[in-house]
């Protein structure tokens, strides 16, 4: 292949699906009283979850999380940091296995109040559009994501069928705009029979802009370097 053709091939490779991957980050809240979740959510196929835990008892006290470094759904490091707090953590210990949806939504962080309000913020994100799913199988909670309503979950919706149910034990919002590197999830308790407690079991975020793999950058760099030396050789041969 002509050396300049290598550059063109590298640039073309950037546009192919195999050369890039959307970054997905999974977060679970609760305790380690029952096995943490290691299955897939409604976004992506990776099974690595960042656990924000209040302890190992079935019900534990609160925890303030500040700039917690997060990995992606394959376990690779990211630039994302998580900050927020819950008044308490719990695990309904319903069983069903650590890879079943029930294992995720039976775990939760909660907030008391009139109503209870939970707020978690991700920082260090690349600007762009994101798909976001928020899970809660315990108490009816209304969620907003960067100020946009994502709907609400339903109290105890997971304590029967062991499956993910939109509007039951999770809500989802696509095309969430991130312009300052941050994304904020707020949950507000809406169930008067549960003293307006707010709960969150976990969330997933997925960048709509695919991130090129390191090998892609290496290919482009190699092509550009080859083109540079080709250009110099041409100038030398021309006596310029």
E-strand count: 15
Strand content: 35-45%
Low-pLDDT stretches are 13-19, 215-220
Top-tier CATH class of the largest domain:
Mainly Beta
Structural domain count: 2
CATH topology term of the largest domain:
Jelly Rolls
Share of helical residues: 10-25%
Q: What gross morphology would you assign?
A: globular
**Which second-level CATH architecture of the largest domain applies?**
Sandwich
Counted by DSSP, the helix tally is 3
Q: CATH-wise, what's the superfamily of the largest domain? A: Galactose-binding lectin
Class from helix and strand fractions: alpha+beta
Q: Which value, in Å, is the CA radius of gyration?
A: 23 Å
Q: What are the secondary-structure elements, in order, as H or E?
A: HEEEEEHEEEEEEEEEEH
Largest sheet properties: 8 strands, antiparallel
Span between N and C termini? 26 Å
Mean pLDDT: 84
Provide a concise account of the structure shown.
By secondary structure, the chain is α+β, with helices and mostly antiparallel strands. 17% of the residues lie in helices and 41% in strands.
């Amino acid at each position: 292949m002509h050396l300049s053709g290598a550059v063109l091939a590298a640039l073309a490779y950037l546009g192919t699906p195999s050369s890039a991957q959307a970054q997905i980050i999974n977060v679970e809240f609760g305790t380690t009283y029952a096995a943490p979740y290691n299955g897939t959510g409604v976004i992506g196929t990776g099974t690595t979850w960042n656990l924000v835990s209040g302890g190992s008892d079935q019900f534990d006290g609160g925890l303030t999380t500040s700039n917690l470094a997060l990995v992606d759904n394959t376990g690779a490091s990211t630039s994302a940091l998580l900050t927020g707090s819950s008044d308490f953590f719990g695990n309904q210990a319903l069983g069903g296995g650590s890879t079943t949806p029930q294992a995720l939504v039976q775990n939760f962080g909660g907030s008391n109040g009139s109503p209870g309000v939970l707020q978690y913020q991700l920082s260090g994100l690349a600007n762009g559009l994101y798909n976001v799913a928020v899970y809660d199988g315990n108490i009816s909670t209304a969620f907003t994501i960067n100020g946009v309503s994502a709907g609400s979950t339903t109290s105890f919706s997971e304590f029967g069928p062991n499956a993910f149910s939109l509007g039951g034990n999770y809500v989802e919002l696509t095309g969430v705009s991130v312009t300052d590197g941050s994304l904020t999830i707020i949950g507000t308790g809406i169930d008067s029979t549960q003293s307006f407690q707010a709960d969150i079991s976990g969330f997933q975020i997925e960048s709509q802009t695919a991130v090129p793999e390191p090998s892609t950058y290496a290919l482009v760099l190699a092509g550009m370097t080859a083109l540079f030396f080709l250009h110099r050789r041409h100038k030398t041969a021309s006596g310029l």
